[in-house]
Amino acid sequence: MEVKVAKHAGVCYGVERALELAEEAAESGTRVRTLGPLIHNPQAVLALREKGVEVAGCLDEVADGTLVIRSHGVDPATIEAACQKGLDVIDATCPFVSKAHEAARELKSGGYSVLIVGEADHPEVEGICAHAGGEAIVVQDPGELPEELPDTKVGVVVQTTQSAERLEAIVHAILPRVAELRVFNTICSATALRQRSAAELASVVDVMIVVGGHNSGNTTRLAEICASVNPHTYHVETAEELDSSWFSGADLVGVTAGASTPDVQMAGVIAAIENLG
Predict the structure, then answer these.
(1) C-alpha pair distances (Å), 135 with each of 107, 113, 147, 201, 258
(2) Every domain of the chain and the residues it spans
(3) Which residues carry out catalysis?
(4) CB 3 within 8 A of CB 255
(5) CATH architecture observed for domain 96-187
(6) Helix (H), strand (E) at residue 196
(7) What is d(CA 253, CA 233) in angstroms, rounded to the nearest whole number?
(8) How many of the other CB atoms lie within 10 Å of CB of 61?
(9) SS3 of 223-253
(10) SS3 state at 86
């Protein structure tokens, strides 16, 4: 049984940067906490905890020391409040997420009603919404669009891990309904590359394995995209979740990983699959 890895897979620059910032802070000797999980990968978050980086559920839980802002970003008021508390704030927001924040602010200041393509309860989307003044509409597909849009002047910004196909479908649904539409395609280039190469690989293998946190939006979307072209697609966090029955009769297995999946995690799953063969 041969294992083939997608051309673009695994941890991206934004996640790598966030992990490095948190680890450097831990080495300083001060108490370090992240505001929520730094990234959506339970194994990576556990590894950080073992290095002294704790997770705080909210700002009230942090009285002193260093606070690391998660890669998904936050409401700007949260950073201001943390600074007022005298905390040493390290902003590990992914640069692509920061661009989405800038786009939301620009649309709001330009008088547009802001619409975000993304998951309403995702921390990244909550942060983008805050930068849009807290009044944005959030949808994941055209069917979620309100019957009446609030204004004839609408601006669109996208959660960085969404797919281009989803953005395109929503834009096409909005276009006939408004007098002016401005769209910022803030999908992360690393996300787009991973989605494209994963779909290409999934179309030619017998079984496709997607590695990454079950709570990771970008990894979940990779699994959805792969499953749309290969029904024998499975999303796992670790090698322990693999089921040997998935590979019965398989000659070629494809593997990809989300942008929040460290290389060591993907390597562990690949080694386990190879041992099955």
Answers:
(1) 12, 8, 17, 40, 30
(2) 2-10+191-276, 13-94, 96-187
(3) 124
(4) yes
(5) 3-Layer(aba) Sandwich (3.40)
(6) helix 189-202
(7) 10
(8) 11
(9) HHHHHHHCCCEEEECCHHHCCHHHHCCCCEE
(10) coil
- Burial of 273 by CB count in 10 Å (0-12 exposed, 13-18 middle, 19+ buried)? buried
Helix (H) or strand (E) holding 232: none
d(CA 143, CA 208): 30
Instruction: State the CATH architecture for 2-10+191-276.
Output: 3-Layer(aba) Sandwich (3.40)
Report residue 247 as tokens.
């590979």
Cα of 261 vs its chain's centroid, Å: 11
| pLDDT in the model for residue 2 | 96
For residue 110, give the nearest of 128, 95, 132, 127 by alpha carbon. 132
Report mean pLDDT in 10-residue bins for the chain, 277 residues. 96 94 92 94 94 95 95 94 96 96 97 96 95 95 92 93 93 95 95 94 98 93 96 97 96 96 95 91
Q: Determine the Cα–Cα distance for residues 201 and 207; give it in Å rounded to an integer.
A: 10
For residues 277 and 157, what is the distance between their CA atoms, to the nearest angstrom?
45
- Whether 166 and 174 have beta carbons less than 8 Å apart is answered as no
Give the C-alpha distances (Å, rounded to integers) separating 6 from 12, 231, 251.
14, 17, 16
13-94 CATH fold: Rossmann fold (3.40.50)
Note whether 2-10+191-276 and 96-187 share their fold.
Answer: yes
Strand ranges (E), 66-111: 66-69, 88-91
